[in-house]
Amino acid sequence: MAIWRLIKNSIRFAFRAKKRWVTFVIIFALLSAFVTLFVSTFNGYTTEKLMSQKGFYIKAAGTSENTGTVTEQQGINFRNDIIALPQVEKVTLFRYFDLGDSIRIFSVEPDSRWMFLEAKPSKIVDGKYITKNNEALVSLDASITADIGNLSASLTATLHRGEVLSFKKDNNELDIAIVGEIEDTINAPGKFKLFVSDTTFDQIQEYYSDNSPVFCYSIAILVKGDLFKPFNHDIKNNIEALSPQTSIIWINPDDPVETSQYGVWGEPIVPDARASEKQRLTDFLYFFVGILGGMVLVLLYNALIVWFRKREIAVLRAMGYKKREIRINLLGESLTISLLGFIIGLSAMLIYFWTQGFTFTNQVITPLTLLMSFGIVVGLSIPGLLIASVSFTRVNPILLFKAR
Amino acid sequence: MSSNAILRCEKVTKIYRRGRSESVHALKDIDLEIRPGEIIMIAGPSGSGKTTLLNVLSGLDKPTKGKILFNVAKASEKFKVKGLDEETIKKQKFIDITQWDEKQLTEYRRYNVGFIFQAWELIPTLKAIENVESSLYPLDIPIGEIRDRAKKLFRKVQLFDKENAFPDQLSGGEQQRVAICRALIKEPKIVFADEPTGNLDSETGEQILRQMKLISREGAAVVLSTHNLELRKFADRVIRLHDGQITY
Ligand SMILES: Nc1ncnc2c1ncn2[C@@H]1O[C@H](COP(=O)(O)OP(=O)(O)OP(=O)(O)O)[C@@H](O)[C@H]1O
Ligand SMILES: [Mg+2]
Questions:
Q1: Which intervals hold domain ABC transporter (chain B) (predicted)?
Q2: Which of A52, A216, A251, A368 is in the most buried spot, having the most CB atoms within 10 Å?
Q3: Is residue B1 part of a domain?
Q4: Per-residue confidence at A359, pLDDT binned at 50, 70, 90?
Q5: Contact B195/A403, CB-based, under 8 Å?
């Protein structure tokens, strides 16, 4: 009970103080925005940067035409042989089949979503990425014009986020929720594109498509090596070792045996390993500067609070407040200011991103990023104040008996 | 010595050391007894040791030598002395606070001592009434009761219309009256006031002292320091300090 009064009092301390507290709210707002940005460079390594730093693609040749060049079986052969190589960490095959003349369905496993170059989460325009079976993304503003034969599908002319696509055959019905719209760069004119999980892909293909043939669109390869070790060269070495193997040795279009085994693939699209290594270093620098800067500022602020509130601390000590009670009072004040700053800074940043066309859903800023910057900006206030409050012992109420 | 006292000091000496060679005898062998309900005025010129005496009596500072005995039998009901059961307390009655550690001294001040400072020291971010109430926030007293007590005190010092003013909206005399309320709301046994009228004009100063006198009639001992002997008429006893010694 008494503790609530102390907390309430600490909020008064925070809100009713003079200009300097407004200043600090602004500082914390800026801090929150910067820390979030810096931390999100780190976040890139679990998402956007995964492929550009640690992997490469190979596209099947001629996929813009209506018939594919690499069959599902050829793609599987290719994948199985690549995955056996020592430098490889993960290989994902992106497949498609055509449903009638104008619908093309792609498989994207949610776990490998950042590996699909043409339809990765940062290309989401509206809604969110698929996270489970029976969810689908649609290509932006795509419309269905085609007759899809003897299938009865309840399709509207265009499909948007929030709508449900139902496949019906005999007495079976499969409902697929459209969860997002994506700006895809897949070159397939006139096709309405749908992106679903592997399981849903196989299900539609098997039950609702009269067994249309499945082709491979692309293959994405992640090499071994730790992204979080900026001075380690494993990634660069593995990419440099692997990319020629996958293109020159294995896929020779002039070799009829290989072609029949693997199909015809294009040249690997390989990032500049040296440049990305440099990029990785800069990002880590940003990340540490962000975190360290945040920490230093938070600790400094808490030290300042103890300094600014010296007379108040002395009065409360003289009144017989225990040190713990004074800490609650100061901590409440510090948390109020930093929380306020965090909320303001973050809202400002999200609004900025929103005006720039980003949305929360395309994962530029993820919950993990928010959690980390919250931890730094707000959470660190607790140990920060505890450290700063060691100097309470130097605040002696005796100073109050000396007139100013 | 009568056992009627609330606080008693025996041969209290305070020596400040300045550097290695120099030392100042701020208090020398002070014997003093403070009884409930009386106003004691400590008078003396600047540098005579008034502040030092208040500091050691209130447990803010420790004397170099001597005992400061607190009558625990007359202590506030809520005050508990760690490590002492009630039997011992009844037998002993007077306990030397110079032996207490910081935590015990905090408890001593929390329940038994009120302060009024020369520069008032109201917390600028709190309204007048919140300043007064803040004395009791950490204690287990319902907020309704705290509020009632504060309002009653405001009426007593004739500040009832200033409850929601912030300290910087109040005159010096008003601020000092708020400070009095803040010291009194916890119903302390002893109120220490170091030059409480030092920053006030003489008329306002006398008004403040009149109010303090009313307060002492309710049972609290008031120990105040001043170098203005004109104010002696408000005191029950005047103790003159000179160079750290009591002169008569
Ligand atoms: N922290 C300290 N260190 C060293 N000497 C001190 C300290 N505090 C006080 N003194 C000295 O002790 C003596 C008594 O000081 P004290 O402040 O108690 O006097 P006072 O009677 O309150 O004076 P005033 O009326 O000016 O407030 C003075 O000589 C002073 O210089
Ligand atoms: Mg003094």
A1: 7-248
A2: A216
A3: no
A4: low
A5: yes
Residues of A in contact with B79 (CB under 8 A): none
**pLDDT above 70 covers what percent of chain A?**
86
Q: How far is CA A74 from CA A82, A112, A144, A188, A246, in A?
A: 12, 21, 30, 21, 14
pTM summary value? 0.75
For A324-364, the DSSP string reads HHHHHHHHHHHHHHHHHHHHHHHHHHHHHHHHTT--GGGTS
B36-66 as b/e: b if 16+ CB within 10 A:
bebbbbbbbeeebbbbbbbbbbbbbbebbeb
Q: State the CATH number of the domain containing residue B69.
A: 3.40.50.300
CB < 8 Å to A2, chain B: 137-140
Residues A290 and A190 in one domain: no
Q: How many CB pairs under 8 A join A and B?
A: 78
Question: How far is the CA of B160 from the CAs of A227, B123, B125, in angstroms?
Answer: 68, 19, 19
Q: Which two tokens stand for residue B144?
A: 């309704």
Please name the residue whose Cα sits nearest to atom 31 of ligand 1: B47
* Nearest one of B191, B189, B182 to B225, comparing CA atoms: B191
The string of pLDDT tens digits covering residues A238-259 is: 988 888 777 654 556 666 667 7
Q: Which two tokens stand for residue B53?
A: 């005496």
Q: Which pair of tokens denotes residue B127?
A: 């309204």
CA angle B6, B87, B220 (to 5 degrees): 20
Instruction: Read off the pLDDT of residues B125-167 as tens digits, 9 standing for 90 and up.
Output: 999 999 999 999 999 999 999 999 999 999 988 887 899 999 9
B130 touching A (Cβ < 8 Å):
yes
Same domain, A42 and A109: no
For residues A70 and A261, what is the distance between their CA atoms, to the nearest angstrom? 10
B2 within domain boundaries: no
For residue A312, what are the domain limits? 2-46+278-401
Whether B55 is covered by a domain: the verdict is yes
Instruction: For residue range A257-302, list pLDDT tens digits in order.
Output: 677 888 888 888 888 878 888 888 888 888 888 888 888 888 888 8
Residue A154 counted as domain residue = yes
Task: Provide the mean pLDDT of chain A.
Answer: 83
Give B137 to chain A, closest Cα distance, Å: 6
Domain span at residue B131? 7-246
Question: What is the per-residue pLDDT across B12-21, written as a single tens digit (0 to 9) for each?
Answer: 999 998 888 8
How many domains does the structure of chain B reveal? 1
Q: In DSSP terms, which residues pair with A153 in a beta bridge?
A: A167
Is residue A130 packed enough to be buried (19+ CB in 10 Å), middle (13-18) or exposed (0-12)? buried
**Overall residue count recorded for chain A in this entry:** 404
Whether residue A289 is contained in a domain is answered as yes
Chain A residues within an 8 Å CB radius of B131: none
> Based on the domain organization, do A133 and A21 belong to the same domain?
no
DSSP alpha helices (H): ranges in B59-142? 86-92, 102-112, 128-133
Higher pLDDT, B214 or B66: B66
Q: In what helix (H) or strand (E) does residue A195 lie, and over which residues does it extend?
A: strand A192-196
Q: Tell which residue, B55, B71, B68, has the closest CA to residue B5.
A: B71
Dig out the tokens for A306 from the structure. 């103890």
d(CA B173, CA B162): 12
